[in-house]
Design goal:
The structure is a single chain. With about 220 residues, the chain is of the alpha/beta class. The chain folds into two domains: about 130 residues, NAD(P)-binding Rossmann-like Domain (Rossmann fold, 3-Layer(aba) Sandwich); about 80 residues, Dihydrodipicolinate Reductase, domain 2. Helices cover about 35% and strands about 25% of the residues. The chain has seven helices and eleven strands. The strands form two sheets. The chain has a seven-stranded mixed β-sheet with strand order 3-2-1-4-5-6-11, with helices on both faces. Strand 9 and strand 10 form a beta hairpin. The longest helix has 14 residues.
Length: about 220
């Protein structure tokens, strides 16, 4: 497929290019806050940039009439509504995390959340020093697995790709559910799988959970 990248010069942008190129896809559109290059019309644009680029993303999506894979965190409710409106004519995948491991972690938490009202629970998330949003979009997503408010602690240090832990403590015992992203490449691979899927779909708003479910149905 022909694809484009918003934030192509950033850390995730470079990883996305690496993964997509390995799978034989053609980069035809590149954009960041300072420059823009177009060789052809992309079938899908992948955006792992910043909320500052969201307006430009939507303008380009309309210009190209292409699908979207959006992994930018800290988007506003109005931004998500714009994606859903655009999804009425083209396919869109939006996720705060493109890791299949996080999906498994979410399902684990949902399976036990109803039994935890007498326990102390906290989410601890760690990321590299360059990540700006606190707490992470993934931490917010994990907190939503509970039907009560769960506090979150955020740590920004060094080059940590991403680590999320859910601590569940009673007076005499502790349970810890943890996910570690050994490399941010895992998010680029998830984005590529999502892009390969939605270019075959005419329209609709999809989560990464739904994309993974489609893959499982295909066997």
């Amino acid at each position: 497929m022909k694809y484009g990248i918003m934030g192509y010069s950033g850390r995730m942008g470079k990883l996305i290019q690496e993964v997509f190129n390995e799978r034989g896809h053609e980069l035809v559109y590149r954009c960041d806050l300072k420059e823009e290059f177009r060789d052809d019309v992309p079938q899908v644009i992948v955006d792992f940039s910043t909320p500052k680029a969201f307006d430009r993303l939507m303008v380009k999506a309309e210009d190209f009439n292409c699908s979207l894979v959006v992994g930018t965190t800290a988007l506003k409710v109005d931004d998500i509504d714009r994606l859903k409106a655009y999804a009425k004519k083209k396919s869109v995948v939006y996720a705060r995390n493109f890791s299949k491991g996080i999906l498994i972690m979410k399902n684990m938490i949902k399976g036990i959340s109803g039994e935890l009202h007498d326990w102390d629970i906290e989410i601890i998330e760690k990321h590299h020093r360059f990540k700006k949003d606190k707490p992470s979009g993934t931490a917010k997503m994990l907190a939503e697995c509970f039907d009560f408010e769960v506090p979150t602690s955020s740590i920004r240090m060094g080059g940590i790709p991403g680590e999320h832990s859910v601590l569940i403590a009673g007076l005499g015992e502790i349970i810890e559910i943890k996910h570690q992203a050994i490399s941010p490449r895992t998010f680029a691979e998830g984005a590529c799988s999502a892009a390969e899927r939605i270019v075959k779909l005419e329209k609709g708003f999809y989560t990464f959970d739904e994309i993974c479910a489609m893959e499982e149905q295909d066997g």
